[in-house]
Amino acid sequence: MKLNLDYLLETLWEYLALICIYTKKRGERPDFGDAIIMRRAATVEHVCHRIHRTLVGQFKYALVWGTSTKYSPQRVGLTHIMEHEDVIQVVKK
């Protein structure tokens, strides 16, 4: 009967402090079907490590769309803290 499963799922996400972060390639639309699941207060550096371990060494800047930025898109560095359902595009050197 699926009674309150949506509420249970939402409560679990809040209790575990999880957020979804979507990736975007240059010149393409964001991929909302495949998200990166991270803990709350994850930085751009944590997201880069999740994508690929050598990405931080090649990192130049990132463009972020979402509630964690003042402008959409905003150019950010490694210390920027991501929020739920932000979209990130990483630019390498």
TrEMBL record:
Q: Which PANTHER family match?
A: DEVELOPMENTALLY-REGULATED GTP-BINDING PROTEIN 2
Q: Which SUPFAM superfamilies does the UniProt entry name for this protein? A: TGS-like
Look up the domain of life of the source.
Answer: Eukaryota
Give the Gene Ontology MF terms in alphabetical order. Answer: GTP binding; GTPase activity
Gene3D superfamilies reported in the protein's UniProt record: 3.10.20.30
Q: Which UniProt keywords apply?
A: GTP-binding, Nucleotide-binding
Q: Which residues form the signal peptide?
A: none
The name this protein carries in UniProt is Developmentally-regulated GTP-binding protein 2-like
Membrane spanning residue stretches: none
Q: Which gene encodes it?
A: LOC104959724
Q: Does the keyword Nucleotide-binding apply?
A: yes
rRNA-binding among keywords: no
Kindly give the InterPro entries that the UniProt entry links to this protein.
Beta-grasp_dom_sf (IPR012675), DRG (IPR045001), TGS (IPR004095), TGS-like (IPR012676)
